[in-house]
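pinned: reference chain
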Amino acid sequence: MRFRLAVPLLLACSMPAVNAFASESRIHKVWYPSPLRSLSPDQLATSFLKSKASELDFDLSTLRLIKSQESLLANHLVYQQFVGDLPIADATISISILKAQQTVYQYYNSLAARPSPVMVKQTISLDQAYDAAWAYVGVQDELFQAPEAELRYTQTDHGLVLVYSVDLSPKA
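pinned: its structure tokens
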């Protein structure tokens, strides 16, 4: 059994609407042909993102390509949104490009519109984050593998909050 928990750096803060943005995330069908026939999937996706940046209200410089996959009919590229060097949890845009027509035919957007981090002073350590996750899950036994944690932002109604994303794999 594997658990992934987000432990806020400020344990006293409440996160009432961590996934408030999720209701706006959905697949959009589009038809965006390549302006030039010789563009690579990454170049076409970048061109598409530039054309959508103002409409979707995001800064292109905050995106990084994290996954590129090829299927029989299309190329699928996933871009992760970052603030500085830290990712924003679940803030991605996936773009699907038909190979034969070199055309973007759909995208899935869950980006944060112009993200603004809530400024907090780090109040817990990585070990305290592990302890909080361990206590929340109620682990009574050992783990299958060593726990992992990643510092990232998560979206709330009040902006971005810095959290440790802790991954536990308890035996029981």
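why pinned: Helices lie at 41-56, 126-137. Confidence is low (pLDDT under 50) at residues 10-23.
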